[in-house]
Design goal:
mainly alpha, 77% helix
């Protein structure tokens, strides 16, 4: 998997042959097929691993604060910054929509991103700072928005402008903290 992840990040799914993967991994083609039914199956597993790591990095960035609105903001920023870089850009943002079945992408996104987004929206709502909701309905919409913003960044849109737009949207989705 590590060899495939490196190769897919370097040259994309279409630019990598099965032979290159097994050669870099130092295994036989039979060994690869013992674990993965096809190159596409291997890519799906690599995609899931990249998505998991991406969501963990966004969650780590968000944990720098205890304010749930700022958690959402910091997590979204980290997600978008990573979307335009290296393996995340190539594997998760550019190649996955063409290679990975939509139901698999949906399952992976729900498993790693949706729960985190929903949890932070629930925390914002509990703090009486969510301007629109309910959190359960808003979370998938916000996730779709972040994925589209990530695609735009990966396609060359200005990262700072995109992050600024997401910040503005977060400002409109939330209310300022009440003074005590």
């Amino acid at each position: 998997m590590a060899a495939a992840r490196e190769l897919f990040a370097e040259r994309g799914f279409a630019g990598v042959s099965r032979e290159e993967i097994v050669e870099r991994a130092g295994v036989t083609r039979g060994a690869m097929y013992h674990y993965f039914s096809s190159k596409e199956h291997l890519f799906e597993v690599v995609f899931e691993e990249v998505e998991r790591d991406l969501c963990q990095a966004a969650a780590d960035a968000a944990s720098a604060t205890s304010d749930p609105v700022e958690e959402l903001r910091l997590g979204a920023r980290a997600f978008l910054q990573l979307a335009g870089q290296g393996e995340v850009r190539r594997i998760a943002v550019l190649d996955a929509p063409a290679v990975v079945k939509p139901e698999t992408r949906r399952r992976v996104n729900e498993q790693y991103a949706l729960g985190v987004i929903q949890a932070v929206l629930v925390a914002i709502d509990a703090d009486r700072r969510l301007a629109v909701g309910p959190p359960e309905a808003l979370a998938p919409l916000l996730m779709a928005l972040l994925h589209e913003a990530a695609t735009q960044v990966a396609d060359g849109a200005d990262e700072a402008t995109t992050i600024d737009l997401i910040d503005q949207l977060i400002d409109r989705l939330t209310k300022p903290r009440r003074r005590r």
